[in-house]
């Protein structure tokens, strides 16, 4: 998805949008752009819906800087093979950068990209929602 959508003047989304505002924003794009947006959202939700993907990204949302594989594994209590798969998928999606260091034992650090950091307010909203509406 290298095509960037040139949006109209986007409203400040920090306070959220009403249903009417969201509908007007969506309709301000031509049909081809609307389809690309729908596909991007669907792809993102498919990725985030995978086991532990949200937990991994949430860890980065509330962390300062890079995280090591071993830190994520112990903090999140995720099996190494599952964590490795999720980190690979998040890296492939452009949400994380991976840096391996030539050391013994091997050290790998992951850093959120600007693309991932732009998702971090979503985690704040979800935590706020959880405080108000515990299931």
From TrEMBL:
Xref: PROSITE patterns: HTH_HXLR
Species name: Halapricum desulfuricans
Stored PANTHER family: TRANSCRIPTIONAL REGULATOR, MARR FAMILY, TRANSCRIPTIONAL REGULATORY PROTEIN
Name of this chain's protein: DNA-binding transcriptional regulator, HxlR family
Organism placement in taxonomy: Archaea, Methanobacteriati, Methanobacteriota, Stenosarchaea group, Halobacteria
UniProt domain HTH hxlR-type: residue ranges: 39-135
This protein's UniProt keywords: DNA-binding, Transcription, Transcription regulation
Molecular function, one GO term: DNA binding
Origin superkingdom: Archaea
Region (Disordered): 1-31
């Amino acid at each position: 998805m290298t095509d960037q959508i040139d949006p109209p003047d986007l409203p400040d989304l920090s306070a959220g949008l009403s249903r009417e505002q969201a509908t007007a924003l969506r309709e301000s794009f031509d049909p081809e752009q609307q389809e690309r947006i729908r596909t991007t959202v669907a792809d993102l939700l498919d990725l985030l819906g995978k086991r532990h993907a949200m937990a991994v990204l949430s860890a980065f949302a509330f962390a300062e800087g890079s995280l090591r594989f071993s830190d994520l594994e112990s903090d999140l209590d995720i099996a190494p093979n599952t964590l490795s798969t999720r980190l690979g998928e998040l890296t492939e999606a452009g949400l994380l950068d991976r840096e391996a260091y030539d050391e013994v034992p091997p050290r790998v650090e992951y850093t959120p990209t600007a693309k991932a950091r732009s998702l971090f307010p979503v985690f704040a909203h979800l935590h706020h929602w959880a405080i108000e509406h515990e299931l």
